[in-house]
Design brief:
Helix content is 30%, strand content 23%. By secondary structure, it is α/β, with parallel strands linked by helices. The strands form four sheets. It has a seven-stranded parallel beta sheet with strand order 4-3-1-5-6-7-8, covered by helices on one side. It has a six-stranded parallel beta sheet with strand order 12-11-10-13-14-15. The longest helix has 14 residues, at 60-73. The chain is globular, with a radius of gyration of 20 Å. The mean pLDDT is 94.
């Protein structure tokens, strides 16, 4: 029998890829469903994959289109469906649940204080098993089975290197984060080698001496982070996990809704949670300074190969 794992490209997919080896019981076969992107092709290289239509937030048209695809995919050989969101999960999970297939929704670790819109919709379907990645959020409807961050352990760096190489990533959102980039351009010494993945702000960022690119593949970003002394990132779940997997405790700078940098303030929740676990240094885009960089230099992270099983109920 086959386990179908589906997630939107980006942080949702990165989470599910990291959680997949810990899912218990293990699957005989796996089929992955996501959007077609450089990131998804790199993450799922060598695996059985079906690409579906990209679904933006509140994109009900694409949800309906993908529901038609789900009808054709949820055949007799699929015995379990697992999703980490976001909106595309609505195309698969309710239908799988109606067909009597074991159905599981793992809320993103980014949702610290309350479920996402997708999670709140799926709460209405009693047969769907729901999982939170935060122990304090567990209740009669949401189970806690572990977190994607259980795989990472903070360590101290008693003899940190000098600040020579910095990687900055603001993700691939269609929202500007030029305030952060301009602030970093101002405070970082000219002697520091800087690589910037600047998204929509790349074309208007005037930073002499820096390597500025609008897009980088996951492998390129991770490789650059491994070589860096310090990583600065918007507090997106995908960027944070790439930094951690590269052995870096990142400086996380949340995008803010009040500054029109995101649709809400959930990145502040991510940053606070990871800071509390010793897995991030948090800063504001208007006040970040070199002290944050020196703090990040004294912290590192190890990836734990024996993290606890994520038991499906």
């Amino acid at each position: 029998m086959t386990r179908l794992l589906m997630a939107s490209a980006g942080g949702h997919l990165t989470e599910l890829v990291l959680l997949a080896p810990r899912l218990w019981p293990p699957a005989e076969e796996e089929l992955w469903v996501t959007f077609d992107s450089e990131q998804s092709r790199a993450l799922l290289a060598g695996r059985r994959v079906r690409f579906i239509r990209d679904t933006k937030p509140r994109d009900w048209r694409s949800i309906l289109v993908n529901t038609r695809v789900a009808r054709s995919m949820l055949g007799e050989d699929i015995d379990t469906v697992i999703s980490s969101g976001s909106g595309a999960a609505l195309s698969f999970l309710p239908l799988a649940n109606a067909r009597g297939i074991s159905t599981h929704y793992i809320e993103s670790a980014a949702r610290v204080e309350r479920p996402s819109v997708t999670g709140r919709i799926l709460e209405r379907f009693r047969g769907i098993h729901l999982y939170t990645q935060h122990r304090d959020d567990a209740n009669s409807r949401w189970q806690f089975a572990g977190s994607v961050f259980d795989s990472f352990h903070p360590v101290s760096v008693p003899d940190p290197p000098p600040l020579r190489r910095v990687v900055i990533t603001v993700g691939t959102l269609d929202f500007s984060f030029i305030g952060l980039l301009e602030r970093l351009r101002t405070i970082l010494p000219a002697t520091v080698d800087v690589v910037v993945q600047g998204g929509v702000d790349s074309a208007r960022l005037d930073w002499p001496g820096a390597t500025v690119r609008s897009m980088m593949t996951t492998d390129e970003v991770r490789s650059a982070m491994v070589r860096a002394d310090v990583v600065v990132a918007h507090a997106g779940i995908g960027s944070a996990m790439i930094a951690l997997s590269a052995g870096k405790v990142p400086i996380l700078v949340p995008r803010k809704h009040s500054r029109r940098e995101h649709v809400d303030d959930h990145q502040e929740q991510i940053a606070r949670h990871l800071d509390a676990r010793g897995l991030a240094v948090t800063a504001d885009s208007t006040t970040i300074d070199l002290e944050h960089f020196y703090e990040a230099l004294t912290h590192g992270v190890e990836q734990i190969a024996t993290a606890r099983r994520f038991v499906l109920q």
